[in-house]
User: What shape does this take?
Amino acid sequence: MPLKRTTITRRSAMSLLATAGLLSALPSVGLADTKSDLSSAKERLAEAQKELDAIATEYEALSEEQSQTLDELNAIEKKVRSVKKRIKRIEKELASKQETLALSVSEEYKDGSRGVVDLLLRSSSVEELISNFYYYGKITQEQADLIEDVKGTRERYVEQMTELELQQVALEEVSKTQEEQLESMRDKQYEAQELIDGLDKQVRRLIAKQDAELLAAQEEAEQARIQREEAARRAAEEAAAKEAAAKEAAEKEAAAREAAATEAAAKEAAAKEAAEKAAAAQEEAKQRERYGDDKESSDVAGESKQDDEAAQAGVEAEGSVDEDVVTGSLDAVIESCMSTPSPGGGLCAGWCSNVMINAGYGFVDGNANDMYSWFCHSSDRADLRPGMAVAVSTHPHTSAGRIYGHIGMYIGDNTVMDNVGFIRSMSLDEWCDYYGATVPVRWGWLNDIVLV
Assistant: This one.
């Protein structure tokens, strides 16, 4: 009888081996070692994933701290710009007061007014002006009060400007330190991710090895079972054949004994007939014909048949612009947003860089969290302009998002375009609500190119 092959799976292998009591008979080297290596690899993978999660949590916390620092730095920068505008107004006011002072002096000293005015105009500072007036000894109390008022106003704004600049420098140092810490954490994240990727490959390789060993052991056990059943079938057939032969021999022997008994009875009857005086030869012949020709025969046959079939199957097997800034065309960037295709899933920053390249403004380096740190400094909607990048340095919705953040392009009309494996458009409000769960959404000009 031909042997029938069956389909083997890891689950069926374990079940059949356990049922057949063969698991304990498997070699200690091989499957046992593979299971131990697999268990160890899974433990190391779990530890590495736990470490990566801890780093991601720490990274999120530090990102929030840096975001607060950027808020403070942004507020200081606004104050600095405001004070600069005030200083320009004060300078105009100072010029006006100097002109008023010069006219006052000219009126008071009509006889020598030309020399005094010339001296006044040649004075390079308020201090030199005061010194010159005291030199002439002609300053009135009202004029001295006017000069002191101008001097005090100037000194107050100078002190305020100095204080703001010191605060700005201090915050820039804090931001720089935080960015270095974030960079160090990103390096740790990259290392942990590489370790996880390597361990994941090792786990899959060990699982495949274990499956192969289990299937080989089950195949061997299945072949042994079939051989045992075939041997049992043959033994049963042999026993049945022996039993049939024995039965046939017994039947033949019984038939022989019966024939012998019949023959003996016939002889006895013949002797009895011979002994009888009144038996004639014809009667004797009739008696012999009646008892001497009996014959019996019997046939014995036996057969047995046994069939065995086994089958198993299974299959087991993701506004205004400063004069010193660089400017670019808003229309070119918006058109590039509409025509630049997706470079693939997980490449949101790559798509934004391609948009700038296709618009003619060159490559933008870094991941989304880098662009967030380098270019996106404001979270004030009053500062948002079409063509700006809109980004977060981290978000909780994906493992990659926790490490690298996400970025898109604001095209105006409360609409953001971004790459999520395909190019999509969604409202700014929805975008901010979804991605701004950990740090505030910020915006700014990529490569500091202001689009007009």
The longest strand covers residues 406-412. The chain has eleven helices and seven strands.
